[in-house]
């Protein structure tokens, strides 16, 4: 007769909940400590202050997005729009062969940067009253799904951030009341 498996002790729900609360508190402290270390290290980087302040002039770009761009994408401002989109993984690639016309999709690049930019773009797309927000709403109004419009908006956002860092100018979106 085979030996029976040991019976695991089951914790009552209140004890389990208390244990999970302790783990969650520990994880939150570790995240806060890591963020503090990152913010301490940022000023030591070349042109750090410049590269942190200018991107935050774009709607949706906050401290986390700016620090992620600075840490994981050191090339912004030195590449053209196609290269920066491909580096982040937001350049559309085709799947064509002969007469077959396949779908376009994004691939490759830095997943961490793409994820942070996508989350910033989702928030900014709905709230922004800038030309970037207008671009998103135009895509949705023309029948594109919100996900596809957000990916296109994210690509437009990284291209704009690249131009801001290249030109060393803050984002100046068009004034809708100004006539030209």
UniProtKB/TrEMBL annotation:
It comes from the Bacteria. Residues 56-136 form the Transposase IS116/IS110/IS902 C-terminal domain. InterPro entries: Transpos_IS110, Transposase_20. PANTHER family: TRANSPOSASE, TRANSPOSASE FOR INSERTION SEQUENCE ELEMENT IS1111A. This is IS110 family transposase. It comes from Azospirillum oleiclasticum.
């Amino acid at each position: 007769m085979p030996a029976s498996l040991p019976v695991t002790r089951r914790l009552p729900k209140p004890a389990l909940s208390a244990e999970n609360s302790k783990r969650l508190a520990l994880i939150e402290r570790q995240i806060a400590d890591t963020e503090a270390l990152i913010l301490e290290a940022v000023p030591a980087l070349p042109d750090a202050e410049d590269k942190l302040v200018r991107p935050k002039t774009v709607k949706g770009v906050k401290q986390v997005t700016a620090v992620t761009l600075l840490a994981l994408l050191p090339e912004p401002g030195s590449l053209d729009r196609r290269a920066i989109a491909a580096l982040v993984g937001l350049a559309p690639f085709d799947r064509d062969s002969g007469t077959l016309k396949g779908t376009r999709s994004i691939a490759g690049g830095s997943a961490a940067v793409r994820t942070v930019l996508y989350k910033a773009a989702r928030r900014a797309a709905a709230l922004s009253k800038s030309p970037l927000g207008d671009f998103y709403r135009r895509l949705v109004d023309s029948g594109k799904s919100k996900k596809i419009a957000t990916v296109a908006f994210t690509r437009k956002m990284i291209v704009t951030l690249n131009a801001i860092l290249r030109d060393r100018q803050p984002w100046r979106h068009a004034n809708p009341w100004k006539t030209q």
